[in-house]
Design a protein that fits this description.
Blueprint lengths: L1 E4 L7 H7 L4 E5 L4 H4 L11 E5 L5 H13 L4 E4 L3 H10 L4
Parallel strand pairs: 1-2, 1-3, 3-4
């Protein structure tokens, strides 16, 4: 299971995650002020957190990175492109 932050729609990225044996546990678009505050997200079943850097700011990224580190799950920051997501998933051993 993956927590995805950023982007309004995931498109083909959801299919890529399925191919890697991951499903989307939670998708946070990052548009709402609550999401931008980086409120604590339940990660009890998450295997990875993916944040799209072209859709959120530095503070949002910092807050979610801290959460992932605190809960000891991999944090992937990448652009919202299939190739970038695939490359990062491979780097962390999900492909």
């Amino acid at each position: 299971m993956a927590i995805v932050i950023g982007a309004d729609r995931l498109g083909n990225i959801e299919n890529l995650l399925d191919e890697c044996g991951l499903s989307v546990l939670k998708h946070i678009t990052g548009r709402s002020p609550k999401a931008q505050a980086g409120n604590m997200v339940s990660m009890s079943h998450a295997k990875v957190m993916i944040l799209f850097t072209d859709f959120v700011g530095h503070n949002v990224m910092r807050n979610f990175r801290k959460q992932a580190k605190k809960q000891n799950i991999p944090f992937i920051a990448c652009k919202r492109t299939i190739s970038d997501v695939a490359r990062n998933l491979e780097r962390y051993g999900f492909m």
